[in-house]
Amino acid sequence: MHIILAFGVFSVGYFLWSRYIEKNLNVDCIRPTPAIEKYNKIDFVPTKPVILFGHHFSSIAGVGPIVGPILALKFGWLPTFLWLIIGVVIIGAVHDFASLMVSVRNGGKTIGDIMSRHVSKLAGKIYLIFTLLTVILVIAVFTRIVATSFSINPVSASTAIFITLSAPILGIIIRKFNISQFISLVLAVVLLSICLFLGYKFPLSISREIWIYSIILYSFLASWLPVWVLLQPRDYINFFLLFSFLIMGTAGIISKNPEIKIYAVPEGTNIFDLIHQIFPFLFVTVACGAVSGFHSLVSSGTTSKQISSECHARPIGYGAMLLESLLGVISMTSMAIFAYDIYIDMIGDKGDKVIDAFAYGLSELSIGVDKSFAKDFSIIALSAFALTSLDTAARIGRYLLGEIIFPSPQENTQKGRKDETLFFAIIFSAAVVLTAYALINSGGAIALWQLFGTSNQLLAAFALITAAVWAKKNKYKNYYFILPAIFMFAVTLSALFIQTKKFITSSDKTLLAVSMALLLSAITVTIITIKEYIKSK
User: Fold this and answer.
1) Quick one: DSSP state of residue 384?
2) Dihedral angle over CA of 439, 444, 445, 448, nearest 10
3) Highest CATH level, class, for 2-26+49-407+417-535
4) d(CA 216, CA 196)
5) Would you list the domain boundaries of the chain?
6) Which DSSP symbol is given to 38?
7) How does pLDDT run across 267-293, given as a tens digit for each residue?
8) How far is CA 228 from CA 41, 89, 173, 179, 381, in A?
9) Residues with Cβ < 8 Å from 498, sequence gap 6 or more?
10) pLDDT of 317-326, one tens digit each?
């Protein structure tokens, strides 16, 4: 049974490989973290590990590990599955753990800032621009998918709204009364139950276009509010949704052991044809389920500013990514139980219906609950998590634009960044989300997803080679960073080149412009970082 094999591989990765890397990085539980040294009540806030795990997991999960593995099934379920379980252990989870640790050791700075310091200022500046474009693609893709889902499923829309409105209540209680982790857990579950009840009681049915406007406005507001007001408590509540979701999916697959009806590999292909078909687009399509450069933005953008001990980095960084890959395996299985022609019909011509297709597939695997409830619950969970990725992306986009316009000073301050006032935070947030809005109607979800997937995976390569340069300069072993970086460079630069050629012959000039900007900046940063790695001591 493939899911049992997945658990076995994940266990080896977490208990053996990640501990080996942790030991080599000299993780110190006592060393003060940026959250403590630069506490400012807004971005730098030491946070209890269980709450931070919920925030981090919800932020990185989103709909990425759902959409990617499902769209990748056209390459066959076997290559998709193998990349999910092997890629995450040796590349994806290592990348997340490395990004978090490198940021913590560098004052909570983003990977772009760290690249400016350890590679070159030019590489850092171009990387920031590249990353900002990727974040804007994230916002555009997820806004489109969530708006479509909300317009089709009024219950999920209203439930997501109630969860978002209840989050500040939990945030204020946790912050003002310093309650225990157990009480915060109970409160989160109670609030979630109330929100689910109200969502079913008051479904909200409005058009897709209005949802797009509403989601863009929400992302704008959430990107500059203090993290403890909305991001932390809302992600903590959502974590229990996703955790229940993981249990439901895993139990269903194990108990039903469903027949896989989609092809293992495309029919009539030999090994050479298969490699030609899957390289490079299998890897960039699976994206977040195995490797995600976006996670380095979360790890270095928000999580590193909230972690209270270095010893929390491995379970949060490496462990959360393994759970995300498990979600990817469940997602893949939910659609692999259908024949290829049914699968294509369910996800839609442009891939816009992938969330609803997944929810239906998971309902077929559910046990102990009504299929209709299982489908509704799945859509509610996925839509809620997509919102967590959206507002986290918007917040990171605001950070990035601020770093591009106001390069951070060489010396750290006790209160964090002083050059970005609330006024500029609002202006930067508006610029990011409005640019994303302009991209929403450019191409379908599949076209946007593959472009996002490529740039996303290239971000992972940049983060890994930055970690390798940092480790080399600090006399740590770094082969577990540099070898994955080389592979990801080969995959993503190939994909980006092919996509740019494709957009040249298409009529979509917006995606062509974005693709060319990504390709040029990617080549420049790649050359600079490789040169710096070679000459670093």
Assistant:
1) H
2) -50
3) mainly alpha
4) 24
5) 2-26+49-407+417-535
6) T
7) 766 777 778 788 888 998 898 899 999
8) 8, 31, 10, 14, 22
9) 280, 281
10) 999 999 999 9
